[in-house]
């Protein structure tokens, strides 16, 4: 049973007063629980659009997208939102922490959309998560008082606080220096391994991509399996 | 059910966090709402209080609804015997079981003060008059049965009268000499109560019981009531306070009874003209304060609309600035409904807080002594409390404005495209 599956997925947009633009074309991808997948591609290759589809933020124009073997089209809008909140965690390039909220409040934010004990114990769960990412002493800090690496760790804690089965990382180290980026990726890997979550990393950095077990390349909307050796060589060359 | 409850609590928490984070902006935007609600509540409350004060003043002057006045005069120009009038009046009250009836005679009595003798305006009334005209006292009490039975006439004087005597303690039974002239002693009267005066009044005045005035007049003719019209019964008015529902019917039967009772043996009923009429503010049946209410209501609605427009404007701009945050929340599981509700809640929570502040400000504004003096002119002793309906109206209006002002931004927030919002 696959966690997420795309079969011959196409995504087309129609810009105003322009002909239809195909951003993704015939994409096939299967994500199993515990997978480590990297998708590399240049700017404008359709990475973000693919991420939105994987995160159930967008719907394919054609083709089949399933979550837990159930077609995503069969979910209502609210049900899709709830599945996303409970099963998928996002890590963004720009961290996207909410300004004016402490690290603790940022991490507790996704739990505002949870139910039962998770909702009522949200502060405790958020505090535990921050401890786990090494920010137990920065819980009351505002985002603008945290370094880039710390902000990304808060973002990671936020994405994991509901125990998602799929973590989607969009250029997670794009705004960090090399060393910090490396430690952040290590943290994501560790937490994903411990929780058994699948990790899909979208990046243009071969070194980050090389950490995954399965590698894909997205080029002009077409997804193909990438050569691991080629990626490793590119990664070596950069480092 | 559980989901709905946690969603509600979550939305309130989100709204509160949002208000807390953007407190300066929120505070500035809500000042307009608070001012609008304060104005609305104040206008409504003042309207209510002014109406109450007007009603109280009207009742004090011309009686409570329904007050019937009886007057009679002879078509032959001869005087109608005051004793006959009084007897007929007493019979009428007894026949129709009317508890509240009073004779009212206007006269003056010479009263010696330290500054000299002053002719003091005097109303001679029966004991029920106090209740019929809402007479409220600042000192002592209105005439009682004991006062009526006393040998010395009892007086209820106004504040000016009392102060001219040096504001004596009423427990000491202060007295004045009525009608003392050229070394001759007058009638000793005891002051039993003091009533307040309007700020524009400057002269002393007093009430005394009609029977005691008659007794005083009998003993000392110079104290007689002057009748400028030369009619019977002096300048006595006969007044009764009856249920409005039966007032029309009573007017007819009282007129009939008086006409037949006062008819002369030779002249028949045609000799006497008896009038029974209402003079209280509600005599025409319509709401006499309707125009005031409409004007006040119109101003209040206008003020509130202006406040709401300002809030909608600011809320729309704010939502545009929050597109990214809304996108982030959606990516972490916030449904469209939840976003809609949260934005609405922000507006509603904020306006309720502003509304509460506005209502509190309004209460402080309306209930302070300076405002009370301005409205009451010292005459409204039973100042009505802050109208609860004005406070409720203020809070309900604030909530409604919050919901309306939040609706448009909430619709905008729901239409935010998550993908674009995160990249925003």
TrEMBL record, chain A:
It comes from the Bacteria. The keyword Chloroplast does not apply. Keywords: ATP-binding, Nucleotide-binding, Transport. Gene3D superfamilies: P-loop containing nucleotide triphosphate hydrolases (3.40.50.300). Residues 4-239 form the ABC transporter domain. One of its GO terms (cellular component) is plasma membrane. Coiled coil: none annotated. Belongs to the ABC transporter superfamily. This is Putative ABC transport system ATP-binding protein.
UniProtKB/TrEMBL annotation, chain B:
It is found in: Cell membrane. The keyword Cell membrane applies. Keywords: Cell membrane, Membrane, Transmembrane, Transmembrane helix. It is a multi-pass membrane protein. GO terms for cellular component: plasma membrane. Its main location: membrane. Residues 299-415 form the ABC3 transporter permease C-terminal domain. GO terms for molecular function: transmembrane transporter activity. Residues 27-214 form the MacB-like periplasmic core domain. The chain crosses the membrane at residues 26-50, 294-319, 339-366, 386-414. InterPro entries: ABC3_permease_C, MacB_PCD, Macrolide_Exporter_MacB. The keyword Membrane applies. It holds the Pfam family FtsX. Belongs to the ABC-4 integral membrane protein family. This is Putative ABC transport system permease protein. The lineage of its organism: Bacteria, Bacillati, Actinomycetota, Actinomycetes, Micrococcales.
């Amino acid at each position: 049973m696959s966690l997420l599956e795309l079969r011959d997925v196409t995504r087309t947009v129609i810009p105003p007063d322009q002909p239809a633009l195909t951003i993704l074309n015939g994409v096939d991808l299967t994500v199993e629980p515990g997978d480590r997948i990297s998708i590399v591609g240049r700017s404008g290759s359709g990475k973000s659009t693919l991420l939105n589809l994987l995160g159930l933020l967008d719907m394919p124009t054609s083709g089949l997208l399933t979550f837990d073997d159930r077609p995503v089209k069969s979910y209502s809008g609210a049900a899709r939102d709830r599945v996303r909140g409970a099963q998928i965690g996002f890590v963004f390039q720009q961290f996207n922490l909410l300004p004016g909220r402490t690290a603790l409040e940022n991490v507790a934010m996704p739990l505002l959309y949870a139910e039962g004990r998770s909702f009522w114990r949200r502060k405790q769960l958020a505090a535990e998560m921050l401890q786990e990412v090494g920010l137990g002493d920065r819980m009351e800090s505002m985002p603008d008082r945290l370094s880039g690496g710390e902000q990304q760790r808060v973002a990671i804690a936020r994405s994991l606080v509901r125990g998602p089965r799929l973590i989607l990382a969009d250029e997670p180290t794009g705004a960090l220096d090399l060393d910090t980026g490396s430690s952040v990726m290590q943290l994501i890997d560790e937490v994903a391994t411990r929780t058994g979550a699948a990790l899909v990393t979208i990046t243009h950095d071969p070194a980050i991509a090389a950490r995954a077990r399965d590698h894909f390349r997205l080029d002009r909307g077409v997804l193909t399996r990438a050569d691991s050796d080629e990626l490793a060589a590119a990664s070596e060359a950069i480092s | 059910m559980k989901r709905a409850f946690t969603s509600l609590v979550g939305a309130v928490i989100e709204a509160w966090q949002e208000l807390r984070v953007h407190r300066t902006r929120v505070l500035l935007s809500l000042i307009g709402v608070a001012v609008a609600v304060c104005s609305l509540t104040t206008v409504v409350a003042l309207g209510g209080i002014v109406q109450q004060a007007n009603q109280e003043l009207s009742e004090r002057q011309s009686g409570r609804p329904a007050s019937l006045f009886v007057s009679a005069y002879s078509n032959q120009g001869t005087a109608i015997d005051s004793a006959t009038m009084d007897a007929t009046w007493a019979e009428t009250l007894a026949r129709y079981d009317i508890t509240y009836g009073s004779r009212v005679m206007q006269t003056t009595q010479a009263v010696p003060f330290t500054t000299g003798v002053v002719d003091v305006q005097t109303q001679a009334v029966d004991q029920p008059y106090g209740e019929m005209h809402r007479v409220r006292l600042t000192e002592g009490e209105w005439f009682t049965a004991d006062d009526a039975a006393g040998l010395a006439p009892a007086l209820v004087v106004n504040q000016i009268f009392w102060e001219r005597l040096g504001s004596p303690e009423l427990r000491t039974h202060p007295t004045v000499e009525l009608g003392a002239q050229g070394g001759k002693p007058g009638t000793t009267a005891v002051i039993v109560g003091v009533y307040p005066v309007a700020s524009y009044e400057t002269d002393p005045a007093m009430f005394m019981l009609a029977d005691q005035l008659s007794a005083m007049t009998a003993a000392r003719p110079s104290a007689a009531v002057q009748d400028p019209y030369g009619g019977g019964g002096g300048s006595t008015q006969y007044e009764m306070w009856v249920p409005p529902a039966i007032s029309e019917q009573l007017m007819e039967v009282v007129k009939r009874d008086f006409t037949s009772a006062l008819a002369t043996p030779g002249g028949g009923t045609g000799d006497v003209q008896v009038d029974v009429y209402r003079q209280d503010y509600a005599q025409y049946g319509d709401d006499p304060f309707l125009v005031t209410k409409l004007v006040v209501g119109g101003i209040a609605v206008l003020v509130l609309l202006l406040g709401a427009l300002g809030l909608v404007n600011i809320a729309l701009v704010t939502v545009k600035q929050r597109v990214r945050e809304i996108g982030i929340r959606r990516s972490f599981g916030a449904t469209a409904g939840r976003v809609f509700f949260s934005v609405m809640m922000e507006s509603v929570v904020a306006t309720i807080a502003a509304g509460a502040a506005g209502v509190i400000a309004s209460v402080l504004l309306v209930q302070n002594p300076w405002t009370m003096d301005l409205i009451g002119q010292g005459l409204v002793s039973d100042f009505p409390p802050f109208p609860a309906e004005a406070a409720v109206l203020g809070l309900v209006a604030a909530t409604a404005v919050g919901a309306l002002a939040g609706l448009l931004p909430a619709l905008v927030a729901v239409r935010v495209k998550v993908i674009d919002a995160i990249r925003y």
